[in-house]
TrEMBL record:
Protein name as it appears in the record: Peptidyl-prolyl cis-trans isomerase
SUPFAM superfamilies: FKBP-like
The gene coding this protein: fkpB
Coiled-coil stretches: none
Gene3D superfamilies, per the entry: 2.40.10.330, 3.10.50.40
EC number: 5.2.1.8
């Protein structure tokens, strides 16, 4: 890939953008504006849903796009198979296990996977490995900074 600038977002473009994700109540769930570091998106690489990419196709530098996506096209639906109950003894004693805490778990292949503590009852800990925004309809605000081939 080159850093050659294109005029519009195409199906294989690399797009540098400020991205803000809002919940339906208007609260901000995440934003690159907080860090001041826009994010690169690679169109067509499978990282984003077709519905998401469809809003960007044809956009130009400095365009600000605002669109709503249902959960299935944003971060996916909640998958019950991604919720696990673990015995509290499986957690290191030096960490605080509280509802809402996000912990990193090492998978058998060595990859790290974040899990959210959803409930603690007696010796059972309910850990949710779904994306934190899974099941949420969201609003995206995308400000295109740069388009590259």
């Amino acid at each position: 890939m080159t850093d050659e600038t294109n005029e519009v977002v195409g199906s294989n473009s690399r797009v540098l953008a400020d991205i803000t994700v809002k919940l339906m109540d208007g609260s901000i769930a995440d934003s690159t504006k907080v860090s001041g570091k826009p994010s690169w998106m690679i169109m067509g690489d499978g990282s984003f849903s077709e519905a998401f990419e469809a809003y960007l196709i044809g956009a130009q530098v400095n365009d600000v796009l605002t669109f709503e996506l249902p959960a299935k096209d944003a971060f996916g639906e909640l998958e019950p198979d991604n919720i696990h109950f673990m015995d509290i003894s499986m957690f290191p004693q030096d960490i605080s296990i509280e509802k809402g805490t996000i912990l990193s778990f090492t998978q058998a292949n060595g990859m790290e996977l974040p899990g959210i503590i959803r409930e603690i009852e007696a010796n059972s800990v309910k850990v949710d490995f779904n994306h934190p925004l899974a099941g949420e309809d969201v609003v995206f605000e995308i400000e295109i900074k740069r388009i590259a081939a």
